[in-house]
Design a protein that fits this description.
single chain; alpha/beta; 396 residues; three-stranded antiparallel beta sheet; globular; binds pyridoxal-5'-phosphate
């Protein structure tokens, strides 16, 4: 029984093993450089895994979204559409570049941005849509791509919850123009607590993202104006480079030690996701007859990787509201239940931008009824049984 609390902990989303330990020590003994060979290898492996041409590692998922907005050419005054039910990073990325956010309400079944409400929100200033693959299940990407293609709008997938998730056989994050992932400690794999990656098939977008990630540094080779200027100073055949800055950029680099861990984590991702899928199946089986609970619906063509396990609580039928459930689960059984997410238009950040309660009824219902149960790849059958038993007992 002693590990049950840790097994049910939502805080750590992955498992590290001997392989990660060895990788850390190997890079440490190589002086733990910033982005180098390990980052390049991790990028290559990730691009291959996701089925895309390019990948660039970054310091976190927020930086991935921010750089993607730069890659998509977002400027002050542009408008970007996303879901009101997500971590604030999805909506903050355009806002921090001076753009405005338009929320589109969620589909009440999948909890993802409802494509049926998307076209109405598109204006002449709409430059990008950020679909968020909430809880680990991909959005309805065909519908979203049809609409955005028609209006020539860039799609940046927020796949922070959806590492390894699939939509009709394609990896989440690989369908829009750009895909963003996070390797924060809670995510399905992690690179020592923080990290992220951006993927794309577009060479020009990739170059822009890569430049802004690291101060827009361009290392000029043999054929640049700088080298030409100084050519006579250097003997022919001698390697010479000159550093230039195309623009003012950022430092959102990942370190090699993180990437080396990422490589080992990526080798295990399908296995780690399978454990989550199995654990979700156990919970679903255990709770399926409990009145008042709406358990997750998985589209037949989706591979849902259960970053979180969402449950809607109908107070009347279950006999208890969300707040009391969260409180009692913690205080009676020591189980920390989450509430991802309070709709973003309730936040001060977006109230100050003119949003009001009543605008997004499906998101608001989720805000009132949604709890997220602990799920991670460490869970033993004993821990899962304790979770299910506690939920059944808490209402009596
Ligand atoms: C975690 C997360 C992010 C941001 O990732 P960080 O690595 O924490 O910056 C963005 N979007 C969603 C949906 C997330 O869950």
């Amino acid at each position: 029984m002693s590990n049950i609390k840790f097994d049910l902990e939502i805080k750590f989303g992955t498992i590290y093993g001997k392989e990660e330990e060895d990788a850390v020590l190997r890079v440490l003994r190589n002086n733990a450089p910033t982005s180098g060979e390990e980052c390049l290898l991790f990028e290559k492996m990730y691009a291959e895994y996701a089925g895309v041409k390019y990948a660039r590692v970054v310091s976190n998922g927020t930086a991935a979204l921010f750089l993607s907005m730069i890659g998509a050419g977002i400027k002050p005054g542009d408008r970007v559409i996303t879901s009101p039910v997500t971590w604030i990073a999805s909506a903050a990325a355009p806002v921090t570049l001076g753009a405005e956010v338009d929320f589109v309400d969620i589909d009440p079944v999948t909890y993802n941005l409802d494509p049926n409400q998307l076209e109405d929100k598109i204006s002449n200033n709409t430059k990008a849509v950020i679909p968020v693959h909430l809880y680990g299940q991909a959005c309805d990407m065909d519908e979203i791509m049809t609409i955005t293609d028609k209006h020539n709008i860039v799609v940046v997938e927020d796949a922070a919850h959806a590492i390894g998730a699939e939509y009709k056989g394609r990896k989440a994050g690989s369908i829009g123009k750009i895909g963003c992932f996070s390797f924060h400690e809670q995510k399905n794999i992690s690179t020592l607590g923080e990290g992220g990656i951006i993927i794309t098939n577009d060479a020009a977008v990739f170059e822009k993202i890569a430049l802004y990630r690291s101060h827009c540094t361009r290392v000029h080779g043999k054929s640049t104006k700088y080298c030409k200027l100084d050519e006579d100073k250097f003997p022919v055949g001698k390697k010479f480079w000159w550093q230039d800055f195309d623009d003012c950029g950022y430092n959102f680099r990942m370190t090699d030690i993180q990437a080396a861990v990422g490589i080992e984590q990526l080798k295990k991702i399908d296995q780690l996701n399978q454990l989550r899928i199995n654990n979700a199946a156990y919970i679903t089986h255990g709770l399926k007859d409990v009145p008042g609970l709406t358990l997750p619906t998985v589209r037949t063509y989706n591979k849902h990787v259960f970053h979180l396990y969402p449950v809607m609580i109908n107070e009347k039928e279950f006999g208890m509201n969300k707040e009391d459930f969260i409180y009692d689960m913690l205080h009676k059984y020591g189980i920390k239940v989450g509430f991802n997410y309070i709709p973003l238009h309730y936040s001060t950040a977006f109230k100050n931008r003119g949003y009001k309660k009543g605008q997004f009824p499906n998101a608001e219902k989720l805000g009132e009824e949604m709890v997220t149960l602990p799920i991670n790849p460490r869970q033993t059958e004993e821990a899962l049984a304790y979770l299910v038993k506690s939920i059944k007992a808490v209402r009596s």
